[in-house]
Amino acid sequence: MKVIKVKNYDEVSAEAFKVMKEVVANKPEAVLGLATGSSPIGLYENMIKDHKENGTSYAKCQSFNLDEYVGIDRNHSQSYWTFMHENLFHGIDLPEDKIHVPYGNTKADCEGYEKAMENVSVDIQVLGIGGNGHIGFNEPGTPFTEETHIVDLTEKTRSDNARFFENDINKVPTQAITMGIATIMKAKKILLVASGANKADAVAAMVNGPVDPACPASVLQNHPDVVVIVDEEAAAKL
Ligand code: GLP
Question: Where are the transmembrane segments (predicted)?
């Protein structure tokens, strides 16, 4: 696990963009594993700017997102489908039919998403990290062997994400569909970005703690190519 410490969120985003750009420059048909949350927004802004100014093209790429809430429509303002269109897809040339975001709440929906990924290999998987060490929506205790599945969101995750639902935890969905840890670990390269003091405990457990489902992100210690980019606050307990 390579850990890059920088000063602040803008530097996290700029460093993350360099990693992403190298992957796409070397492989124009790269398969991008994408994430939501506030952490990768700066990376996505850099990708849009670079696409507009330097013409980097995603026309041959395809994307697979990590997760989606259950129980809200794709067109809901807080769905991850909407998030990805507003924060990235509107500004690059990734074809709409190459975009994959999981959706649904049945076993068949989960299997369908795995099937869509069956013959592709994700070249770079972007990740944020939850305050409790979750990746995607794999909450603490999730077995590392899980593939795409439906999860009950923890109270911690729902309260962390209430800021996107008018600060009302009751409006935050109680379940999500998420790639499992086994799905995430198949990616060739993993790029995790974290910033802010509320991530310091999770980052320390991911990097230095035991590899244990109690901190889902700790599994990344077992992956051969992980780049973690953290700002000073998120790195405070390393
Ligand atoms: C959500 C997402 C995760 C994300 C996490 C952290 O729970 N499912 O993929 O990493 O939030 O979000 P943020 O980057 O906003 O702190």
Answer: none
Q: Provide the CATH number for the domain formed by 2-228 in this structure.
A: 3.40.50.1360
Segment 21-30 long-range contacts (CB within 8 Å, at least 24 positions apart) = 21/50, 21/56, 23/123, 23/124, 23/189, 24/56, 24/58, 24/61, 25/56, 27/123, 28/57, 28/59, 28/60, 28/61, 29/60, 29/61, 30/61, 30/123, 30/124
Per-residue pLDDT reduced to its tens digit, 95-108: 999 999 999 999 99
For the whole model, what pTM was predicted? 0.97
Give the distance from CA 195 to its chain's centroid: 14
| 113-161 confidence digits (pLDDT tens) | 999 999 999 999 999 999 999 999 999 999 999 999 999 999 988 998 9
Contacts of 76 (CB under 8 A, 6+ apart): 69, 82
ipTM of predicted complex = 0.95
CA of 90 to the centre of ligand 1 (A): 21
Query: Domain-by-domain residue ranges, the chain?
Result: 2-228
